Amino acid sequence: MPVSNLTEEKSSALPVKKIPVHIKSAQNRILIKGGRVVNHDRIFHADVFIEDGLIKDVGENLIIPGGAKVIEAKGKYVIPGGIDTNTSLELEFMGTRTADDFYTGTKAALAGGTTMVMNFVLETKKKSLLDAFEASKSQAEKKACCDYAFHVCVLNYDDEIGKEMETLVGQKGVNSFKMFMAYKDYLMINDADLIKIFKKCKELGAIPMVHAENGDVIDECQQKIKNLGITGPEGHLLSRPESLEAEATNRAITIAHEVNSPVYIVHVMSKSAANAVSEGKRKGTVVIGEPIAAGLATDGTHYYNKCWRHSAGHVMSPPLRDDISTPGYLMDLLASGDLELTGTDHCVFNTNQKALGKDDFSKIPNGVNGVEDRMTVIWDRGVKAGKMDPCRFVAVTSTNAAKVFNIYPQKGYIGKGSDADVVVWDPEQSKTISVKTHNQAVDFNIFEGMTCQGAPMVVISNGKIVLEDGNLHVSQGAGRFVETPAFSDYLFERIKKRDSFHPLKVEREAYTGLVVDPTKDLESQMANSKIGEPPVAGHANFHHRPLTKSGARNLQDSSFSLGGEQWDDQPLKTSTRVKNPPGGKSSGIF
User: Which of 268, 464, 530, 568 is deepest in the core (most CB within 10 A)?
Assistant: First the structure.
């Protein structure tokens, strides 16, 4: 029976309890007082008034209705709630299902200051894209504590899938599709289908997203590493070298450039891949690069840890890189704008699930945590480290995602009319990350023991306080599905403009000479063709331009031939008489 019917039956059987006006007002009205508001473009002192799930006013000395709960934010920042662009909650993958479902995953997100997640819909059981989407949406409606949207994964392309993509964009509120260039014989798509999907996305105003690794070469590398007797988690890193991520990244960007489509590179994990994104931007491609919390704060040296559980807990694809300077390098590019925004690729498995690959690294379920710790880790490694200011922090954790997926300024902004997803951020609060205290439903944390500075003091989701004084107050099913409209101006204004430019045709006389007939004997046709002799020195036709009016050689004419002769060449003398005094000629002056 539909939920709505159940609700109606209950309401008719039970008396309606009326909530006193003053209590109702306190529940729906919040005044954040004395803080510094941070948007992507500026920081300013202001109070923020929230009512009925929306930001109603921003300014100083606000006049507001009575009954509002007041939050003192002096010395704190007031920022938009984070948007995690890359999560895999309640997802079946590599023979098992992720440990975090929509309840535990979104609860953990809120604990860390993230008020919206964008989850992947991945169906490998031949279910249609529409059915897979509806199944994921139904799960989220029952469990999600914060707002959510979806990216739909596409594993191949035909006319039927094209029609489903049209329905998802036009009727279901989805504007992004993900393709895998890795996981051969499982999820990997070929280049021909990738091109077709890029074209379809461009037509629909949707965003093609890619997992960029060369799956064919990885398959070869895995076999090579196993043949060497390497079966542990270090084999995962060794079989997926940085060059294969960079090659696929560059290939995806090249396809996007030729199609004139945007492209979104998920989880940029290496210097080389990040450089490919930067170079693509400089060549004019509309490319979005997304590093993740794991790649910004830890590295691949953990794959060589003697503890199998520890090293397997870091297995993800593309892998963390064992160059320990990579996290700082990626953070630099994120701060400078070469990389656009951040997600987490939060796709977690407990140790007993990772143990599916205890004897074969290629069977370890890929995925790490991050949805709860992303904001704190980026503040600590970015803002505290002096690499970015609070405005850039807001841009890479919230605003840019809202712009890319066309939900700005509903999300990602502190301003009148925006959703009341707001975080009061304490830049001085210290937090030590640990599996013992985190809210994620997984028994491992890749940031274990890391002490970071900067954490949420208060988190407000849809106008409701969900975190205060270190205590979570979440409601299962309180999250809303957020539609992501097509044709984001942030991406497609450039695409549309570039479509209006075309190369010019060269106007020339038609060729009227002979044309070989490939059905006839080529030798005889070549023999009948007359190829002129190359000009030689002294030949009457060596110069092709006429003499000037005065009878001199036209200086615009060439003075040499491809054979090396010069127009004024003279026969070489057989001998030369030297007239020098005994002892030789001196040219010095003494």
Answer: 268
572 φ, ψ (degrees, to nearest 5): -70, 140
Q: What residues are paired with 8 via a beta bridge?
A: none
Amino acid of residue 555: L
DSSP 67-130: SPEEEE-TTSEEEEPEEEEEE--S-EETTEE-S--HHHHHHHHHHTTEEEEEEEE---SS--HH
**Neighbour count for residue 309 (Cβ, 10 Å):** 14
The pLDDT score that the predictor gives to residue 534 is: 52
Q: What is the pLDDT of residues 249-265, one digit of tens each?
A: 999 999 999 999 999 99
Secondary structure (3-state) at 334: helix
pLDDT digits (tens, 9 = 90+) for 404-460: 999 999 999 999 999 999 999 999 999 999 999 999 999 999 999 999 999 999 999
Question: Residue 175's closest CA among 147, 151, 155?
Answer: 151
Token duo for residue 494: 């450039």
Query: Does the N-terminal peptide bond of residue 409 adopt cis geometry, omega within 30 degrees of 0?
Result: yes
Q: HEC profile for 51-72?
A: ECCEEEEEECCCCCCCCCEEEE
Residue 87 β-bridge partners: 119, 346
Residue 549: exposed, middle, or buried by beta-carbon count in 10 A (0-12, 13-18, 19+)?
A: exposed
Supply the pTM of this predicted model: 0.86
